[in-house]
Amino acid sequence: MDSTISGLHRPDPFHGDDPGPSSSTANANAASSSQPSRYESQKRRDWNTFLQYLKNHKPPLTLSRCSGAHVIEFLKYLDQFGKTKVHAAACPYFGLPNPPAPCACPLKQAWGSLDALIGRLRAAYEENGGRPDSNPFAARAVRIYLREVKEGQAKARGIPYEKKKRKRNLPSVPATAVNVTVAPSTGHGGDGGKVVP
Fold it and tell me: Does 24 score more than 80 pLDDT?
């Protein structure tokens, strides 16, 4: 793959090059006159964090060799920086939404944070040249892992995540089936008659 444009070296994270601050995404954002949105900034930070994780991995990994299993490993690695108390099954406060006292259960990343992170990384992967059919962030194993984290945290906190109920489309009533009567005007104002169903 040719990674030079007009004589400038463009890093290729899919083949092990360090993207650094001069990545094509950073250059494109710097070239624009407006600042990137908060979402775009966070997506870029998350992407760079993941690439650094791959670089520091033992043995180092290239993005092209990254799989859903590596993504799950990355999510587990992030748990050490989490701020959400997740009670273990043996904890006396397991399943209590508001525990009365502190406990020694670990802090982990909240499910919602992980879910949002995967969404940003999934988009960043494709924006940085990855093919949608080989996107490790869209792997079935990652979706299953996120579902298990969601359910496990809900049980540990005693707060179930309920699926949003879909709005049912009620059968519409044809206009010809509705009886509408126009009441005569009282003559005192300009109401021109009232519609009475």
Answer: no
